[in-house]
Known about the structure:
Blueprint: H1 20-23, H2 34-47, H3 50-55, E1 73-86, E2 89-100, E3 103-116, E4 119-127
Amino acid sequence: MSRPAPCPCGSLQPLATCCGRWFAGPLHLQAPDAQALMRSRYSAFARGLGDYLLATWHPSTRPPQIEFEPGLRWLGLQVRRHQAVDDAHATVEFVARSKLGGRAHRLHETSRFVREDGRWFYVDGDLAP
């Protein structure tokens, strides 16, 4: 019997019991904190789940659509820091690695999150140099 594939976020847990639980079912869109939402959004990028990404993006900064780069492969996520600013605001610093056209890429961002009506949303982020 084969084991389920691990979650793209790097937790080593099966997708269904990690970030996948936020994609569908009764817990849909209710990640308990900004770090869990950040991890689920990375997994959604890795799996091409544009609807989930849009639904978890704050309306004030949400783009009209998500366009995925053809051939882009997400390779790993490292969460460096999660800081609760207060009950409704948090930041998550992360590094996401990807590969496109044989070239490795690194996205290092400190993202801002806000909690409204009991749900966390991605607002925006600052890229590290």
